[in-house]
Amino acid sequence: MTMRPLLPDVVEGETKMPWTETSRTTAEANQDVPRRVILIGPPGAGKGTQTHTLATHLGVAHISTGDLFRRHVGGRTVLGERAQTFMVRGELVPNEITLATVRNRLAEGDAAGGFLLDGFPRTVEQAVFLQQLLRQSGTGIDAVLEMHVEEDEIVRRLAGRRTCRECGRSWHVEFDPPRAEGSCDACGGALAQRDDDREEAIRRRLDLYEQETRPLLDFFRERGLLVRIDARGPVAEVGERAISAVGTTDHSGRS
């Protein structure tokens, strides 16, 4: 598939941010480990919990598109101002802005040694863009990890969340219950279930995720890059599975 360049290398007027996500370990000197990894998973799969552990193990920069947008907005950069106009309306940030944000971040020095991408790509078009961008530097995607959890388990995880109306502290009726049902241990405020944590809303989000992500997973599977990880069970066990998965991946940068 041929794709014309979508964006200049650096957006005019853009200010580089002082990124601090890099985690360096002994893996930095080990050229046999995957260096450019993508993490994909549905809401409630525990993806956010695993990113720091995996990035530290690999000795690479953890790059989250959500964090990128928030930092650009906070830093009042050109991209941040453009993204904020959509974010405040609850709309998706346009593809062009997302691609420019990722391109600029990957140009930062710490990403040259490798990265763990979280939240990007979300579409096949974005995946092709990333492939072309990495080819310019003679590299490629080493592995794509899919955090897999059955739908009913995700509903169980998300539907049990409760949030304090006063202090915002989060609880879980099964995994982290307060001492008194319906009352926050921290401040005594009333606990409530967010609308998007109700079962019907969760299943709608999962249906949308499946529709949007399936073509992307197929794209990476066809290229031999996709590795599915069982994300059930204790956090530490899931982390061990993820580390084991990247250790057995054929990371020849085939993309």
From TrEMBL:
Listed GO biological process terms: AMP salvage
UniProt cross-references to InterPro entries, sorted A to Z: Adenyl_kin_sub, Adenylat/UMP-CMP_kin, Adenylat_kinase_CS, Adenylate_kinase_lid-dom, ADK_active_lid_dom_sf, P-loop_NTPase
MF annotations from Gene Ontology: AMP kinase activity; ATP binding; zinc ion binding
Pfam annotation, one family: ADK_lid
Biological or metabolic pathway of the protein: Purine metabolism; AMP biosynthesis via salvage pathway; AMP from ADP: step 1/1
Binding of ATP, residues: 44-49, 161, 233
Region (NMP): 64-93
EC main group: transferase
Domain spans labelled Adenylate kinase active site lid: 161-196
PROSITE patterns with a match to the protein in the record: ADENYLATE_KINASE
Subcellular location: Cytoplasm
Binding annotation for Zn(2+): 164, 167, 184, 187
Gene Ontology terms: cellular component: cytoplasm
Subunit structure: Monomer.
Function per UniProt: Catalyzes the reversible transfer of the terminal phosphate group between ATP and AMP. Plays an important role in cellular energy homeostasis and in adenine nucleotide metabolism.
Record-stated family: Belongs to the adenylate kinase family.
Domain notes: Consists of three domains, a large central CORE domain and two small peripheral domains, NMPbind and LID, which undergo movements during catalysis. The LID domain closes over the site of phosphoryl transfer upon ATP binding. Assembling and dissambling the active center during each catalytic cycle provides an effective means to prevent ATP hydrolysis. Some bacteria have evolved a zinc-coordinating structure that stabilizes the LID domain.
Full protein name: Adenylate kinase
Originating organism: Saccharopolyspora spinosa
